[in-house]
C-alpha cells in the first residue's frame, strides 16, 4: 500500500576515519585483525538465503603472509550456479512487487551496519584478504561501500520521481520496472566496495541477482553478504556463489532468463563475455543489459608550469597506493624536459621512504600484490625492462615471493613513448615515464591520446590556464574521469561518478543515476480520462453531425 510519496534526501559522504596513533578506531581495527587471524573462517556460499558448503575448499591466505591461513571457502560448480539462478527467479515476483521504500530500507540499514557495528570487520577482512593498508581499506570497504548504498537509494528515488508531461484530459506516467529475469554480477578483487555495489545496484531496482566475486575477494565479499542478510534482504534476492569464471558463464549466458551482466574486471574477460552473449542472443527473452567497467592505462601529463612537488606527490600516490592495483592508477607519465630530472630525483627519494610489509604494521604504505599469478605477471614486465636497452629502471625493480607477494614501487624511464609498459595495463606498482620537449606540449597531448586503447582516467598538472584548457579539449575522449591538478585515482561516490570509455568499458558510471537506469525497464502508461466514441476526425464528419 502506498499512501505517500517517500523522499530519500541526498546523503553526505561517509567521513573517513584516520586511524592515527592513539585513536579509538586504530585500537578497534587492530583488535579485529587479531581476531580474524586467530580463528580461521569456514565460508559458505549463500544461495536462496541458505549457507551452502560443498567440501571442495579453497584456502584463503593474506597475500603479504602466505604461510598463514585465514580460512577457506567452499567452491561451487555448475549445479550451484543453476541453483542460484533458480533461487533468484523464485524470489523475483515478490521482490519486484515489494514497495520501493521497503526495499530501500534494507540497503540503508546495511550501510548503517557497516558504518557502525561492522566497520572494523569489513576493513580488517579487506586488509587481510586483499592486502590493503588501513587507510586504503577505510576509503574502500567502509566509506565507498556505504556511499554506494546511500547515494544509490537517493538517486533511485530521484529517478522514480521523473514523470512525463500530461496535457488536459490525459494522465501519462512512467513506471520503472526491474528487468525480466536475473542479473549476473561478476566482481573484481581490488575493491570491496565494487564487489558490494555491483549486486546491490540492480537489486535495489527490484532485480534478483547471482553474484560471483573474485576468489581473492571472497573473505570480505562473504562478510558483506552476511550484513545484507542481517539487514533483512529476503532469501534469493542476491545469491553469492563461488565458481570458476567459464563454468559460471556457461550456465548463466545460456539461460533464457539471463537479463543482464554487471561486470567489473579486465577488458579481455569482458570482451569474451560480450561475444558469448552476442552468440546466444536468440536464446534470451529480452536483450540483456551489458554493463562493464574494465582496464585502464591511466596517464599523468605534467606541463612545464606545474609545481614539482605537486607532480611528485600525484605520481607517488597515484601510481603506488594499493600497490598500483587500481584501474585508475597512474601508470604512464609525461614530464617536460624542463623538470623531468628534478621530478624523478625527488620521486625516487619519496619512494625510498615508503615502507613495505604486512597490513598489521601500520607503518607500511606498501603491502603485497594480490596473488602469485599477478606477482609473476608484474615481475615479468620488470625483468624484461631490466634487459631492454630502450628503458632504464630508476627506482625499485626488486621483488620477492618468499613471505608474500612483494614488489617494490618501480619507476621505468623510457625513450620510446610506445614502449609496451606505456601501452599495456600491468596492474601493479610500476610507473613508466617519458620525457617530452617542453615546447612540444600539444604534440605530446596527441601522443597521450593515441598511445593506449584504454580511456579510463588521466590527469593534467599545470598552473598555466591555457595549458589546462588545451589538455581538457585535446584529451576529451582519452579519459572518462579527467583530473586537473590531482592524481587520477580516488573518485568519490556522488562527487566524481566513475567509469571510462573505449576499451575501458561501457562508461555507465558506478554510483550514479546513469548506472541505475541500466537496471530499469521503463513502462509508459497513458490513461485517457474521457475516451472518444467516434472514429471519424472532425473534418470527416457530415455537416449535420456537428
Ligand atoms: N574500470 C573500473 O571501474 C575497474 C575497477 C576495478 C577493477 N577494474 C579492472 O579489473 C581488473 C583487475 O581485477 P581482476 O584481476 O579481478 O579482473 P579479472 O577480469 O581477472 O576478474 C574479474 C572477475 O571476472 C571473473 N572471471 C574471470 N574470467 C572469467 C570468465 N571467463 N567468465 C566469467 N567470469 C570470469 C573473475 O573470477 C572475477 O570475479 C583490471 O583490469 C582493472 O583495471 C576496473
Ligand atoms: N574508483 C576507484 C578505482 C576503481 C578501480 O579499481 C578510483 O577512482 O580510484
Automatic annotation (TrEMBL):
One of its GO terms (molecular function) is proline dehydrogenase activity. Residues 56-512 form the Aldehyde dehydrogenase domain. Its EC number is 1.2.1.88. One of its GO terms (biological process) is L-proline catabolic process to L-glutamate. It comes from the Bacteria. The keyword GTP-binding does not apply. InterPro entries: Ald_DH/histidinol_DH, Ald_DH_C, Ald_DH_CS_CYS, Ald_DH_N, Aldehyde_DH_dom, P5CDH/ALDH4A1, Proline_metab_enzyme. GO terms for cellular component: cytoplasmic side of plasma membrane. It catalyses: L-glutamate 5-semialdehyde + NAD(+) + H2O = L-glutamate + NADH + 2 H(+). It is an enzyme of class 1 (oxidoreductase). The keyword NAD applies. Belongs to the aldehyde dehydrogenase family. This is L-glutamate gamma-semialdehyde dehydrogenase.
Amino acid at each position: 500500500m502506498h499512501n505517500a510519496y517517500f523522499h530519500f534526501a541526498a546523503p553526505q559522504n561517509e567521513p573517513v576515519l584516520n586511524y592515527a596513533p592513539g585513536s579509538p578506531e586504530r585500537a578497534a581495527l587492530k583488535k579485529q585483525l587479531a581476531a580474524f587471524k586467530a580463528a580461521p573462517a569456514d565460508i559458505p556460499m549463500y544461495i536462496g538465503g541458505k549457507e551452502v558448503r560443498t567440501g571442495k575448499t579453497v584456502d584463503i591466505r593474506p597475500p603479504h603472509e602466505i604461510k598463514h591461513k585465514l580460512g577457506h571457502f567452499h567452491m561451487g560448480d555448475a549445479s550451484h550456479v543453476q541453483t542460484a539462478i533458480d533461487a533468484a527467479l523464485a524470489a523475483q515476483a515478490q521482490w519486484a512487487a515489494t514497495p520501493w521504500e521497503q526495499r530501500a530500507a534494507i540497503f540503508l540499514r546495511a550501510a548503517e551496519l557497516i558504518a557502525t557495528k561492522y566497520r572494523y570487520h569489513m576493513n580488517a577482512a579487506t586488509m587481510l584478504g586483499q592486502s590493503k593498508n588501513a587507510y586504503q581499506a577505510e576509503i574502500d570497504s567502509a566509506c565507498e561501500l556505504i556511499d554506494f548504498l546511500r547515494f544509490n537509494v537517493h538517486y533511485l528515488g530521484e529517478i522514480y520521481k521523473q514523470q512525463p508531461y500530461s496535457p488536459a484530459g490525459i494522465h501519462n506516467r512512467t513506471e520503472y520496472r526491474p528487468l525480466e529475469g536475473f542479473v549476473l554480477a561478476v566482481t573484481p578483487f581490488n575493491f570491496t566496495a565494487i564487489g558490494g555495489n555491483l549486486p546491490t545496484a540492480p537489486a535495489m531496482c527490484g532485480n534478483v541477482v547471482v553474484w560471483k566475486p573474485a576468489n581473492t575477494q571472497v573473505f570480505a565479499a562473504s562478510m558483506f553478504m552476511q550484513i545484507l542478510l542481517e539487514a533483512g534482504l529476503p532469501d534469493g534476492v542476491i545469491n553469492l556463489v563461488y565458481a570458476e569464471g567459464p563454468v559460471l558463464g556457461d550456465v548463466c549466458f545460456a539461460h533464457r532468463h539471463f537479463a543482464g551482466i554487471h561486470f567489473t574486471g579486465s577488458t579481455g574477460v569482458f570482451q569474451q563475455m560480450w561475444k558469448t552473449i552476442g552468440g546466444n542472443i536468440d536464446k534470451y527473452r529480452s536483450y540483456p543489459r551489458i554493463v562493464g567497467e574494465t582496464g585502464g592505462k591511466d596517464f599523468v601529463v605534467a606541463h612545464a608550469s606545474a609545481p614539482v612537488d605537486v607532480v611528485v606527490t600525484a605520481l607517488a600516490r597515484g601510481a603506488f597506493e594499493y600497490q598500483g592495483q587500481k584501474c585508475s592508477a597512474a601508470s604512464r607519465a609525461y614530464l617536460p624536459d624542463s623538470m623531468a630530472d628534478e621530478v624523478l630525483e625527488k620521486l625516487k627519494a619519496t619512494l625510498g621512504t615508503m615502507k613495505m610489509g604486512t597490513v598489521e604494521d601500520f607503518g607500511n604504505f606498501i603491502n603485497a600484490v594480490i596473488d602469485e599469478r599477478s606477482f609473476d605477471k608484474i615481475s615479468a614486465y620488470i625483468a624484461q625492462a631490466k634487459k631492454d636497452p630502450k628503458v632504464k629502471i630508476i627506482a625499485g625493480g626488486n621483488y620477492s615471493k618468499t613471505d608474500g607477494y612483494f614488489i617494490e614501487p618501480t619507476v621505468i624511464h623510457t625513450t620510446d613513448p610506445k614502449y609496451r609498459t606505456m601501452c599495456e595495463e600491468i596492474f601493479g606498482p610500476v610507473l613508466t615515464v617519458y620525457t617530452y620537449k617542453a615546447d612540444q606540449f600539444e604534440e605530446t597531448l596527441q601522443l597521450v591520446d593515441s598511445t593506449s586503447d584504454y580511456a579510463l582516467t588521466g590527469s593534467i598538472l599545470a598552473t598555466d590556464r591555457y595549458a589546462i584548457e588545451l589538455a581538457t579539449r585535446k584529451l576529451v575522449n582519452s579519459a572518462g574521469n579527467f583530473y586537473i591538478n590531482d592524481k587520477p585515482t580516488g573518485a568519490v561516490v556522488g562527487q566524481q561518478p566513475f567509469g571510462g570509455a573505449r576499451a575501458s568499458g561501457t562508461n555507465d558510471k558506478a554510483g550514479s543515476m546513469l548506472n541505475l537506469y541500466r537496471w530499469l525497464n521503463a513502462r509508459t502508461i497513458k490513461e485517457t480520462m474521457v475516451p472518444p466514441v467516434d472514429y471519424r476526425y472532425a473534418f470527416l464528419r457530415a455537416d449535420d453531425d456537428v
